Amino acid sequence: MNAESKVTPVHLKRAAYLYIRQSTLRQVLENTESTQRQYALRRRAVALGWPEDRIVVIDHDQGQSGGSAIQREGFQRLVADVGLGKAGLVMGLEVSRLARNCADWHRLLEICALTHTLILDEDGLYDPAHYNDRLLLGLKGTMSEAELHILKARLVGGVLSKAQRAELRMPLPVGLVYDADERVVLDPDQQVQQSLRVFFATFERTGSAWATVQAFRREGLKFPKRGPAGTGEIAWQELSHSIALNTLHNPRYAGAFCFGRTRTWKDVEGKCHHQQVPRDQWRFLKRQAHPGYISWDQFLGNEQRLLQNQQAHGGGERKAGPPREGPALLQGLVLCGKCGSTMTICYHRRGGRLTPDYVCQKRYIERAEDICQRIPGGGLDEAVGQLLVQSVTPLALEAALKVQSEIQARLAQADHLRQQQLQRAQYEADRARLRYMRVDPNNRLVADTLEAQWNEKLRMLTQVREDCEKQRRLDSAQLSQEQRARILSLASEFPRLWQDPKTQDRDRKRMARLLLEDVTLRREEQEISAQLRFKGGATHQLRVPFPKSAWALRKTKPEIVAEIDQLLTDHTETEIAQILNDRGWHSSTGSTFSFHIVGRLRRTYQLKSRRQRLRERGWLTVHEVAHLLECSWTRINYWRNAGLLVSLRLGEKNDCLYQLPSATVLAEIRRRQRRQCWKTDNISTCI
Ligand SMILES: [Zn+2]
Hints:
The chain has 25 helices and 22 strands. With 687 residues, the protein is an alpha+beta fold. A hairpin with a 2-residue loop joins strand 4 and strand 5.
C-alpha cells in the first residue's frame, strides 16, 4: 500500500497537524537545521493534498523535553484535537519528537487508531489502524525511549565518573572560586575571606547560628553573596539565619568535595522536589580536596552543635540547647525527678533581680495536665555553683590525675595480656597451616576439613589483632607533662573566672556544661533534692533548703511584734513607732517605723487595739459618759478641759476614751451643772 492510497477524502476534510519541538532552548537557538526540517514537512502535507490553510502548526513546546506530556501544552492540545476527530494527519520529524515516553506515545497511537488519524514522519506515512504500521510505530516509540535512556545514562555516567575523581565542576559557594587551572581556591578577595573567617569564628564562640546572625547585625557586618550570574561580582547582604545554616552545613568550606547531597525528583504533576540526603548516604565525599576555611573536624563539630540546638528546640530526644543570656545556670541540663522529662525555665523578678524557676510542664503543654513540679532555682543555682568551684580544687585535680596514672599502669598490664593472646592465636594459626600442608591433597575429605580449620584460625587471628590494635589506640591517650600542668592551673583559674562579676551568665553556663552531664531535680517536703551527674560519670547529691517565700522573707521578727503588743496598752501607734525608731529598730523591709506600719502589723498579727484594751479596763466612750452625766455629749469636752474628766487619745484623730469618773467627781459635776442651769434660767427670765 503506498502512501497516497492511505490518504482518503475523509482525512483530507480534517486538518493536518504539524508538531514541532526541540528539547532545550539551546537546541532551539543552535540546532536550527532540525527546526527547518520540521517545517519542511509542511510541503509533504501539501503534496498529499492538504490545502495550506488547513495545516495547523503546533510549536508551543519549544524547549520542552519529550520525557513527559506534563507541562507540554502543545502535545496535550494535539492529543485533545486528535481525540475530538479534528485531525486527519499528525506530522513529526521523527516520531520520537512526539513523545519520548512510551505511555504517552501508545496513548496517542491508540487515539489515532480510533479516530482514523494518519501519522507522518520523514520516513513515511503510517495508519495506526493497520497492524503493520502500528507495530512499526510502536517499535519506533520504544526505540525513541531507549535512546533517551541511553543518552541519559551516558551523560550521568560521565558526570559520576568525574565526580568520583572530585573533578566535576560544580557551582561553588561564595568564598571559593576556580582558578585558571580549574582548581578550587579561596576567593582572592581579602574582604570575602575575612568575612567568612569572622563568620566561622563567631559561630565557634556563640555556638548557635542564630546568635551568629545577631552578632553580625549588632556589629553591622555584611555577608558576601554572588552577584548576577556570569559577572563574577560579589554583592553584600545582611546575614540571615538560612544563609548562616547553609554556610555551616556546606562541606566545601571544610575543603571537601562532595556529590549527592540532595536528591531531586519530579512528582506526577511535573513539579521538582529537592531533598537533603544524610551525610552517610552521599554518593562521593573526598576530604582535603581543596583549601577550605575550617577543618573537617570543625565541620563535624559544627554539624553536631547544630543538631543539638535543633533537638533542643524541636523536641525529640532531650539535649541542651545553646547557652542563652538568662541567669538560670542549669538551663538545658535539668531533668524532672518525678517523670524524667526535660524541665524548662520561667523567670520572674524578685528584689529587682531575675530569678529562675525550673518547671516540668511538658505534660501540661502537650496534654493540658497539671504542671508536674515547679522548683525555685535561685538558691539551687548558687549551691551548684559552689559545688563546681569546690570540685575544681588543686586537691581534687591531683587526686584525679593520680587515679589516671594508676589506670594507665593497669592498662599496660592488660596490654601485655592481650599480646600474649595474640601470640597464642598466631601459634594456633601456624599449626593449622602446617597440618593442612602435611595432608595428602588427594585425601579431599580430610584436606577440606583442615582447610576450613585453618581459615577459622586465621579469622580468629585477624579478629584478635584488630581488637588488640583498637584497644591500644584507645589506651594510648596518655597525658603529657604540659597537659598535666594545664589541668592543674585550672584549679586556680576556674574559681577566679567563676566568681568574676564580669563573667557573663552564658559563659558560666558553658563552664557548667563542661563539667555537668545533667541534673535531676525533685521537690521534697522541706527541701530540693538535686542529683548531679558529672561528665566523667561521677554523681553527687545536693540538698538545698526551700527558699523562703516573699511573704516569709518579709516577716517581722517576733520580738518586735511582742514589743508592739506590750506598748499598745499605754501608747498610741504613732508613739509606738517613735519608741521603736528611738531604739534603732527597723521593719522587715529595712525602713523606719511609722504609725501605718505599726497599724498594719497590729492587724496582721491580730493584736488587740488600744481601744479594746482600754474598754476592757472599763474606760467609757464619749456617749457613755454623756449618758452617765445626763448631758449632751458636746459638753463632755468642757468637763475634760475643766480637769474633771480623764481621757486618753486613741490615735491620730481626736477619738478619746474616758475614765469612769469617781463618785466625788460625779457629785462635783452634777453640782456645777445645777448652778449653770440656775444661771441660764435667770438670764432667760431677765430677757
Ligand atoms: Zn515531671
